[in-house]
């Protein structure tokens, strides 16, 4: 098994570990957002429309340019551009923003010309302008450790125009759940490839691990296994943090679909 340097020391457990053991020397283990994993993420991103629908509905009520935080390869950026808005897409990973730039290059200038990709850390950025809406979708707030989140809240506040809104999604875990929870679904990518998506979360734990493995690996040759460990930030905790950072949460909308855990969309205003 090959291991990308970012993953050295990351133990896989349960079904994900069994699957990697079964692949033996073929397995190439990488992070879901590094050079090898980014295409896997991009392949499966965009196959769940519910969050996009909710965000577009909210954005239609909010005039002005949009800041898409942790934009990745642009799953949300492109629908936002489709609304006719100017969009700044902020992303930390060079590999992900590279994919976004490639996708933009293939779009008409009328659309491409309204998008500004920026490589930056969402917990510490200064763009020198303000936005009608700042969006942090895909429950990506949970990628930030607790000590980095005050920086995010401060930066967003500094970039919101008067009357602007911070639209942020997070996961609504079941506080009554107990034990270790391992789930597996088959996820079909835009390429037609099918992946086993294995998610592991222990009740009360502050992280969950998601691993993507091709459902039908070739008999020989390398097989990319992309994994990532994501923080779990329950909605009630996020609301408390936002309020402490000087925001008022104006609405909480459940996002249908999205697999085992429910996601919610919060709309917050800086006071
Ligand atoms: C779950 S993906 C979401 C991407 C995109 N919004 C989507 O819906 O497909 C999370 C993204 O956050 C990026 N990311 C992680 N930490 C970040 C940070 N501190 N600042 C900016 N982007 C970050 C990752 O590189 C990844 O592209």
UniProtKB/TrEMBL annotation:
Question: Matching Gene3D superfamilies, A to Z?
Answer: Vaccinia Virus protein VP39
Please report the stretch or stretches of sequence annotated as the Methyltransferase domain: 66-164
Give the superkingdom in one word: Bacteria
> Matching Pfam families, A to Z?
Methyltransf_25
Which molecular-function annotations from GO does this UniProt entry contain?
methyltransferase activity
Question: What biological processes does GO assign it?
Answer: methylation
User: Which UniProt key words apply to this protein?
Assistant: Methyltransferase, Transferase
Name under which the protein is recorded? Class I SAM-dependent methyltransferase
Query: What species is this protein from?
Result: Streptomyces nitrosporeus
